[in-house]
Amino acid sequence: QVQLVESGGGLVQAGGSLKLSCAASGITFSMSALGWYRQGPGEQRELVATISRGGSTNYADSVKGRFIISRDNAKSTVYLQMNSLKPDDTAVYYCKAILTREYWGQGTQVTVSS
Q1: Which tens digit of pLDDT belongs to each residue from 79-98?
Q2: N or C, which end of the chain is more exposed by having fewer CB within 10 Å?
């Protein structure tokens, strides 16, 4: 059974930093493409960042230069380092793994106060 468990969310002031983690189990992690998505209040879920099996990354324009996605295949974990946080970054953050199908975590809340 595939499980993705996010952690690291919380309350932070604008300009601060957080690092999210997503630990995976039950999946061939090194073969999976991975991503972070977020869903703000009353909004649709949107892509934040992705990282391929080979380590290529892609970011939403709104987070370029502030967020960094990385992966540690030995730990079956994907990370999202979030710097210079803004109130608009407030959302539930989800990780996704893609192998033969998509798998989602349960989400972790990030709240940025002004």
Answers
A1: 999 999 999 999 999 999 99
A2: N
